[in-house]
TrEMBL record:
InterPro entries: FAR1_DNA_bnd_dom, FHY3/FAR1, MULE_transposase_dom, Znf_PMZ, Znf_SWIM. It is found in: Nucleus. Residues 545-581 form the SWIM-type domain. This is Protein FAR1-RELATED SEQUENCE. Putative transcription activator involved in regulating light control of development.
Length: 758
């Protein structure tokens, strides 16, 4: 059996993402069958020359040597870029001549790169008045995927039948598109950055059959059903590279709970077929809430910068206080550029999950893993961590381990001992037995494609909204059961949501294990205590926790950092308050974001509070954002819905009544300006544009008939249509890398204020 050949003969330009021809065959035997022939090879025939990281590839770009059979590359893009750089040095251009893909997975497994002068022009193209460049040159290289992460050069022909000169390379498209990438690599890259796409200007988001149509259908539907739906595409020469979208509920959730955000890159790894990354926060019930979604072509700094700027624009320019990500140098650079005032915290759980994979080659792997756990989880102070880490490195002789060196350099972003002053709303793990659960767990699997994901996407949102509604009901109408006689427990049972109260209640119960509170130091109003605690699961082990208490301001601070990490006081701090006879938790330690009535008390910060009443766009946006709160409260129950609907209808009736009065009695601001400009003394004589003068009775009759026939039509007439070509209304030019497109609101027409800075 022979695998089908997806040939791309006589291509006009080089492309790393060219569409291939497919046949209805279903086999995966890696045998090519084309004009050039394919000689079977074995791995033992070549001396391996491997280029598998950024620095080595960048070095080949500076001083490229001729291709040699046996060279190996980490990715296809690395191989393409190497041959392109060699071509630039010699003086010719390249393109993709043939490309083979496996039928089942659509995975590339063999490619032929050739000189751009290869072959001859097809006869049907001879009527086009262009210079003849196809002269039958035979120079080429053939590369083949020999393992899941290795491409090997198995054939090379270096002779050309034409003159080659480096002075002419500027006219070849493959080199014009590479200049920006070469310059970036020549300036240097950190070893920790994943830059598998050295020719990222040529990359595009790869969509399988049916996925583009499914994405388009989803966007069109959301535009029709959600007036505050936002999306933005990053286009480069017509190729879709990155995309971001957020519905109205996600944007409203950020207004309430945007203090701490997790950017989840779990699905960008090779384990998943879906190149997807969501923004996730946590609500007042401790539940994950979605704050936007993205599709990314790669994990480069450029893609992350584009995405973060887009997300920031969607959220009215308000940055989060803390953002939590995986350990990734590209992310680190992008966050420093877009969110300079935001605390960047790296996921401790993800880093510790990688430890077995990164350290499994060590002779004393289990011992090193245990020592690392003790250093990270067992250190309450920075100096304790530094001492434990140094002891681990010296004892096991692992000073040269690159991964340990890299995570140690970034220790201030993920080790709990360094993060006592950074609020994380319980979204960052600090204990060994804690784990991280993604918002889309159970909906996205290893082989989930975009089409299937969009089908499950709304189901995941509906389930999340139902869980929140249920938690709202339980917190408002079902009081939690008390387990102790502690006054702190009773106090917060009336304030916090059920889930957050249960977590705090556990701290109250754990006060039983804090058997001794002793004063050790006094400095003015500040008293330092040591609270002794029996370690859970090992009653013979006792740990000391230092707690500082300010008598004057009734402030308490524990060395464990529970309040900063989770937003409620720990058992050690509660023990000190109880020791000092404080019967109620001070108000500064009762966070509003955990209250059951939080959405009643808090007005989301959607940007500037000042509104220019003469600017219809700003007025629309301001009113829309305020109406969001009514919508949020109105979906809690049927009674809430009826009250909210009646309130909106009453408000609309009052506004319409006022509009009738103003149309007949009060000159508008526009009319005043017109009168001033034309020096008209009697404002009542100013002609109202677009409407003949009517008597009060006539106007009421016309308006009454119109509204009674079709309320929706009357409302739409009050929105002034804007030509889609009007500049500065879209967001494309604000955050696009090359070209960007933004659509929101109603399909077919763009109205003032629809989806502007919500």
């Amino acid at each position: 059996m022979a695998d089908h050949l997806c040939a791309q003969n006589e291509m006009e330009e080089p492309s790393l993402n060219s569409e291939t021809l497919t046949e209805n065959e279903d086999n995966e035997i890696e045998v090519g069958n084309n004009d050039d022939g394919l000689q079977p090879t074995s791995s033992g025939e070549f001396d391996m020359i491997v280029y598998n990281n950024v620095n080595s590839v960048a070095q080949r770009m500076k001083d490229p040597s001729p291709p040699v059979v046996g060279m190996e590359f980490e990715t296809y893009e690395d191989a393409y870029n190497f041959y392109n750089c060699y071509a630039k040095n010699v003086g010719f251009g390249i393109r993709v001549r043939n490309l083979w893909r496996r039928q089942k997975t659509n995975e590339k497994y063999m490619v032929v790169l050739c000189c751009s002068n290869q072959g001859f022009r097809r006869k049907k193209d001879t009527h086009r008045l262009r210079p003849e460049t196809r002269i039958g040159c035979l120079a080429m290289v053939r590369i083949k995927l020999v393992s899941s992460e290795r491409w090997r050069l198995i054939e090379a022909k270096l002779e050309h039948n034409h003159l080659t000169t480096p002075a002419s390379v500027q006219f070849y498209k493959s080199h014009r598109m590479m200049n920006g990438v070469i310059r970036k690599l020549e300036l240097g890259c950190d070893a920790g950055v994943q830059t598998n796409d050295l020719v990222d200007e040529l990359k595009k988001l790869e969509l399988k059959e049916g996925e583009a149509e499914a994405l388009e259908n989803y966007l069109c539907k959301m535009q029709l059903v959600s007036p505050s739906f936002f999306y933005l595409m990053d286009l480069n020469n017509g190729r879709l590279r990155n995309m971001f979208w957020a519905d109205g509920r996600s944007r409203a959730s950020y207004g309430y709970f945007g203090d701490v955000v997790v950017f989840d890159t779990t699905y960008l790894t090779k384990k998943y077929d879906l190149s997807f990354a969501p923004f996730v926060g946590v609500n007042h019930h401790g539940q994950s809430v979605l704050m936007g979604c993205s599709l990314l072509v790669d994990e480069s700094v450029e893609s992350f910068v584009w995405l973060f700027k887009t997300w920031l624009t969607c959220m009215s320019g308000r940055s989060p206080s803390t953002i939590i990500t995986d350990h990734n140098r590209a992310l680190q650079k992008a966050i420093a550029e877009v969110f300079p005032e935001t605390h960047h915290r790296m996921s401790l759980w993800h880093i510790m999950e990688k430890a077995p994979e990164k350290l499994k080659g060590l002779h004393e792997f289990e011992e090193v893993k245990m020592a690392m756990n003790i250093a990270v989880y067992g250190s309450l102070r920075v100096d304790e961590f530094e001492t434990a880490w140094e002891d681990m490195v010296q004892r096991y002789g692992i000073q040269e381990n690159e991964w340990l060196q890299m995570v140690y350099e970034d220790r201030q972003h993920w080790v709990p001992a360094f993060l006592k002053d950074t609020f994380s709303a319980g979204m960052a793990t600090t204990q060994r037995n804690q784990s991280v659960k993604s918002f889309f767990d159970g909906y996205v699997h290893k082989h989930t494609n975009l089409k299937d994901f969009l089908g499950n996407y709304e189901l995941a949102l509906v389930n999340a909204y139902q869980k929140e509604a249920k938690a709202d009901f339980e917190s408002r109408y079902l009081g939690p059961a008390l387990k102790t006689r502690c006054c702190y427990e009773r106090q917060l049972s009336q304030v916090y949501t059920c889930e957050i109260f249960r977590k705090f209640q556990h701290e109250v119960e754990e006060m039983f294990f804090c058997f001794n509170t002793a004063q050790i130091h006094v400095s003015g109003p500040i008293i330092t205590y040591i609270v002794k605690e029996r370690v859970e699961g090992n009653a013979s082990e006792i740990r000391d926790y230092e707690v500082q208490y300010n008598i004057a301001d009734v402030e308490v601070q524990c060395i464990c950092g529970c309040f900063s990490f989770n937003g409620y006081l720990c058992k050690h701090a509660l023990s000190v308050l109880n020791y000092n006879g404080v019967e109620e938790i001070p108000p500064q330690y009762i966070l509003a974001r955990w209250r059951k009535d939080f959405k009643h008390l808090y007005v989301p910060n959607h940007g500037s509070a000042t509104v220019d009443i003469d600017n219809s766009v700003q007025c629309y946006d301001h009113l829309y954002k305020r109406a969001i709160q009514i919508v949020e409260e109105g979906v809690i129950s049927q009674e809430h819905f009826k009250v909210a609907l009646q309130t909106l209808e009453d408000s609309l009736s009052k506004v319409r009544l006022l509009e009738n009065i103003e149309l007949n009695t009060t000159p508008t601001t526009v009319q005043r300006n017109m009168a001033e400009a034309h020096k008209v003394q009697d404002l009542s004589q100013v002609k109202r544009p677009g409407r003949p003068k009517q008597s009060r009775g006539q106007m009421e009759k016309i308006c009454g008939d119109t509204w009674s026939k079709n309320d929706t039509q009357a409302v739409s007439k009050r929105l002034r249509p804007i030509d889609s070509a009007t500049p500065n209304l879209g967001l494309g030019n604000l955050v696009g890398t090359q070209e960007s497109t933004c659509q929101s609101g109603i399909v077919g027409s763009l109205f003032i204020g629809v989806d502007q800075d919500v």
